[in-house]
Design a protein that fits this description.
single chain, 362 residues, alpha/beta, Arc Repressor Mutant, subunit A, Dna Topoisomerase Vi A Subunit, Chain: A, domain 2, six-stranded mixed β-sheet, 18% strand, globular
Length: 362
């Protein structure tokens, strides 16, 4: 068994032993772990990341309100232990089906839909202090990367610069990847696959000596961890390229400061050196893009107000200026609006100029 697999195995076995002791001593079997709710999410002003506070919760077997979730947690723990024992990985969907069964002499299923097994797994992360990837459970692949990097993955040597139009497909679990060679000055992460394909076809990563990374919308955990490893292990700045809208700003916020749902994973997920490269309100003015504005809906106005009230944005004058300009415009703007200036404008002019001038938001 690999060294990094020993910790989750030990944690799972310790959980089992603790419950056995409870049973042998006639106690109500109890699991205790950090409370995973908004009321227990705190913003650390020193590290500038979201995390969980000190509040704890208990889940006991002989409690009608706890019993099913208690059982779901143990069932997912059993699935994980089985996977670790045989050295195999499973998807979130696999785990749902592996846990889904009807209790003997009843009409009750351990899990009825995947959201239940997913939540049980998130609880198990807190209980064991191990990520789901360490527990051998992975999500779907939803990202690509290209650039002058050579890695070793599962015994294969892979060159990110020589994988054709699709680039390297980023897996859910990137912990075991070994970087053999990294030749880049920075990384650009973008939310849109279509924008990544534009930069890849233009060989932007080669001309500008950088790496280009994308997901399909909100960033996956595998991508966030890969970006963090590139940032911490190879001292690469991370630039975020997203739409000029509340959702693009939120993607940046999650990357840099963490998310409420994954506050317990902030240590291995956040990117403290991330910078927002664009699109910004100033770009709309400087590049004459106002004619491509998309009018705000009520939901956009609500979201931008929520963002402006976040602790990490409240006292940031530059970000507050962006929020105000967006509200004054009453509109949002997509990255692809830059194509109106020419199909390669983003590669030839927009990105090189902004990076050279340091025109990004912290």
């Amino acid at each position: 068994m690999k060294k990094q697999e020993k910790k989750p195995v030990k944690e799972l076995e310790d959980l089992g032993r603790k419950l056995v002791v409870d049973i042998e001593k006639g106690r109500n079997p109890t699991i205790e772990f950090s409370l995973r709710s908004l009321s227990n999410v705190v913003f650390d002003t020193k590290t500038k990341t979201l995390g969980l506070g000190s509040k704890q919760q208990q889940r006991t077997f002989f409690n009608v309100g706890h019993a099913k979730k208690f059982l779901q947690t143990l069932e997912v723990a059993k699935v994980s232990k089985t996977l670790l024992n045989v050295g195999k990985h499973a998807s979130l969907r696999d785990v749902f089906y592996m846990a889904k069964r009807t209790l003997p002499n009843s009409n009750t299923n351990i899990v009825d839909d995947q959201s239940e097994s997913d939540k049980a797994l998130e609880d198990l992360e807190l209980i064991t202090d191990c990520s789901r990837e360490q527990l051998h459970i992975n999500a779907n692949k939803m990202g690509s990367v290209a650039g002058n990097v050579i890695i070793e993955d599962a015994g294969d040597t892979i060159n990110w610069a020589k994988l054709g139009s699709g680039g390297w497909s980023i897996p859910s679990n990137v912990e075991d990847i070994e970087f053999k060679s990294v030749k880049a000055k920075y990384v650009i992460y973008m939310e849109k696959q279509a924008v990544w394909e534009r930069l890849h076809e233009d060989k932007f990563w080669d001309k500008q000596n950088c790496l280009i990374v994308t997901s399909q919308g909100q960033t996956t955990r595998g991508i966030r961890r890969l970006l963090q490893r590139l940032s911490q292990e190879h001292d690469l700045p991370i630039y975020v390229l997203a739409d000029f809208d509340p959702w693009g700003f939120y993607i940046y916020s999650v990357l840099k400061f963490g998310s409420i749902n994954l506050a317990h994973m902030s240590e291995t997920m956040t990117l403290q050196n991330a910078r927002f490269l664009g699109i910004t309100a100033d770009d709309a003015v400087n590049y004459d893009l106002k004619k491509h504005f998309i009018k705000f809906k009520d939901v956009d106005l609500t979201r931008i107000k929520q963002l402006s009230d976040y602790d990490w944005f409240k006292k940031n004058k530059e970000w507050q200026r962006q929020f105000k300009m967006m509200k004054d415009f009453g509109a949002k703007l997509e990255i692809q609006a830059l194509s109106s200036k020419g199909i390669t404008f983003i590669s030839d002019k927009y990105l090189p100029d902004k990076i050279k001038k340091g025109e990004f938001l912290d």
